Amino acid sequence: MRITLVRLLTLLLVPYLVASTAPAEELGRYERSVERYAIPDVVLTNQNGDKVRLKSLLESGQPVAVDFIYATCTTICPILSAGYAHLQRKLGSESSKVHLVSITIDPENDTPPILKDYLAKYQARPGWDFLTGSRRDIDRVMTAFNAYFRDKMDHKPLTFIRMPKDGSWVRLYGLMNGIDFVEEYRQAGNL
């Protein structure tokens, strides 16, 4: 049986992230700040091949979290995705009220079928979209979130949670366990 590095990391890290009550410092400290971002009005494509107007999606009033990942990443992206999967499981039937958005930083390779397969690996439920688009539009979105990466090997562990009351964003820089991610989501006023 052949096992990929991503699958191996997922098997090793997901149980720790999901079940861990360990403090965040065991995964590494993360920084939290509250920011304002002007979302560009770009059209991206989701894992089903559907066109999505990003500004409307993120400013719909529905609770939303955003991260920047790519499908072939073997370092931080599996950890961020495990956090999303944990949040969906923790919320159970309420997970449909939360919109999780992953935006690829490798649009040249991350096509809708690849994004769909990626989400299947994490048993993503409805409400978690993985978006791709043109390099120009992806760069505009990363720049708007002050998350621009020179290339995919330079990416950082960033997660953004929109606060529904005032539209500001909680910016989380670093890796955290699943429990801390759920708590950050609660603190942002989304649960």
Give an account of the 3D structure.
α1 packs across α3. This protein is globular. The termini are far apart. The protein has one domain: Glutaredoxin (3-Layer(aba) Sandwich). With 191 residues, the chain is of the alpha/beta class.
Specify the number of helices: 6
| Beta-strand segment tally | 8
The helix-strand sequence is HEEEHEHEHEHEEH
Helix content: 25-40%
CATH superfamily: Glutaredoxin
Low-pLDDT ranges: 1-26
Helix-strand category = alpha/beta
CATH architecture, by name, is 3-Layer(aba) Sandwich
Fold-level CATH name: Glutaredoxin
How many separate domains make up the residues? 1
Mean pLDDT: 85
Name the descriptors:
191 residues, alpha/beta, Glutaredoxin, 6-stranded mixed beta sheet, two-stranded antiparallel ribbon, 6 helices, 8 strands, 34% helix, 19% strand, globular
Write the layout of secondary structure elements.
Layout (H helix, E strand, L loop, with lengths): L4 H15 L11 E5 L7 E3 L5 E3 H5 L5 E6 L7 H15 L7 E6 L7 H10 L6 E4 L3 H10 L13 E5 L6 E5 L4 H10 L4
Quick summary:
Helix content is 34%, strand content 19%. The protein has six helices and eight strands; from the N terminus they run H-E-E-E-H-E-H-E-H-E-H-E-E-H. The chain is of the alpha/beta class.
